[in-house]
Amino acid sequence: MKQYASICFLLCVLLAGCSKTTDNLDEKLTEDEKIEQDKEIINEVAEQRLQADPSVFHFIADWLTDTEILYVEKNEGKYEVKSFNIESGQRKVIFEDDAFVINVWVHPSQEYLLIHTSDQYDAAIVKMLSLDGRVLHEIEIASTELEVQWNSIDPQKILFTAFHEDWSFDIFAFDGHLEDLKIVNVEDPFPKWFGEKHIVAAKLNDHPLDGARVERVHVETGEREMLSENHIVYMDTFKDSILFVEAPVDGFYTYKLQSANRTDFTEWKMPAVSNYSEWVVPEIEWINETTVVLTGSEKEGQLDDLAGQYSLYLITEGQLQKKLHDLDNAPLKCSPSGNKCLIDHTSEELVDMETSKRYRWIEFTK
């Protein structure tokens, strides 16, 4: 059944960057004084640097392993998904396709890839591959824009939100065990997997700044259960863990993370940022069920006034470690172990999370 995303909160925020509670951010940041003030980009490093030709380079995709990064190039009419080893400098072609490659994902098991391709504006083809490049499943979906959510426990289960030209949308659940694609009826265009059989979806309040409630929906039976009260402005999941961000009180967001083996939430607070009509919460990177990496603003305020005032944090069981500062609000891509992360809007800079050193791992030839 065709649905409409009429509230910009879901499009701009959910797509976007006994409890342990922190009364304010500064109390948690005793490591801040240990961070050197001049985190300049290091040119001479042990890791290899990819020399890339800008005339054929397409985009940086994801980490394949702790030492290999996936990227896409177009060579002689074909799009090639390649890997580059930052320690050895070795390059490999994993997959090639005639169709335009839009996105590439690596499953948390590190055993499968998803390749989103298209050769026409109103249709998408998603291919699931083994790491040796064999196509295991191929799904074609009518859409002008496609959102993909891959189940982090069972790689055979994928959610697709297919947007159409009028911004109406359809949500599909794919089960590779059965080769079955079915409609899922939820109002939220950006639901997330929660365990193997459930998804979670937002139910909006009257105004985006008031946040939403979150419900859990069984994909097969449609059974529903409310998981939160009002005022959730961001949520994300990994396996059986879930993270909520509550609308700010006194200028601070409250982050709440619940893992599968706990009945309570781990909590911490961070300064709130808005963009006039909605709250801005950077997306997080899950390392495991209790550890996340994220960026956060140093102070509350408007997004336009906070350029270069974000910091990079490693958070384990609610304990914050600041790893880097003076950053923009940009997406992150972290290696499976969380030892290294790609930062900035183009993912051309790499941060060693143990040393907090940053450097460019890719260089474009002239």
UniProtKB/TrEMBL annotation:
Organism: Sporosarcina saromensis
Protein name per Swiss-Prot or TrEMBL: YqgU-like 6-bladed beta-propeller domain-containing protein
A Pfam cross-reference name: YqgU
Boundaries of every YqgU-like 6-bladed beta-propeller domain copy: 85-342
Family annotation (PROSITE patterns): PROKAR_LIPOPROTEIN
Recorded superkingdom: Bacteria
InterPro entries listed in its UniProt record: YqgU_beta-prop
